[in-house]
Amino acid sequence: MIQMKGLTKSFKQGQEQTKVLKGIDLTIKEGEFVAIMGPSGSGKSTLLQLVGGLDLPTSGDIQINDHQLHKMNEKERTIFRRKHMGFVFQNYQLLPTLTVKENVSFPIHADRKVSKQDEERVNQLIQAVGLDGYGDKKANVLSGGQQQRVAVARAIANQPAVLLADEPTGNLDREKAEEILHLLAEFHRKEGQTIVMVTHDIFAAGFADRIILFKDGLVDQEIRREDEQYAEYLAHFMA
Q1: Which residues form the signal peptide (predicted)?
Q2: Strands 218-224 and 194-198, how do they pair?
Q3: What is the CATH number of domain 2-93+162-238?
Q4: Which among 16, 113, 170, 217 could disulfide-bond with 22, CB atoms 3.0 to 4.6 Å apart, if both were Cys?
């Protein structure tokens, strides 16, 4: 599904070049739920932006299925994101004056005329995230947890091939965070969603099939759910 080879990213600060990613080789399989962890400045959020086509690598290749993002121009990347990718951000990034239903259906509107089938899917998603009856409420009257539920529904409304989540529970308390994580896991299970989630929370990472640890712009370690040390690793960090 997602393949990165020799991926680097540098940023210019004054006269100096800061290398954030230093040669990432990473493959994420279709239908896999991956959590990326690491200290601040390790490059995990930068990697997510490159995967989402929100930025371009300094060097290296990034391919999603048969599409080479690094070879697309800005317009092509925008169309690709709209058709194939969903995003969940830490700060929700809803349109506050639109209703829940309008926010969830926004990616569909951007791509095509909304059909009756699309409307049914939007209503089903609103119900699936526990907001039945909230469809006509404005986003700005909802709680943080409710807004993030809307953001999750919006992210998968267009049935994207890849869902990217950047600290999706960072602004939520543990109870609300757990609700959001269960939602992501449920959509992953039911719709075969490929999910790449950046998080600093080992509890959140425990919902993933694989945890990838970043350090100094490189992949430092990978732990898979089937590995014997997976549960031990989680228990150690959650103690």
Answers
A1: none
A2: unpaired
A3: 3.40.50.300
A4: 217
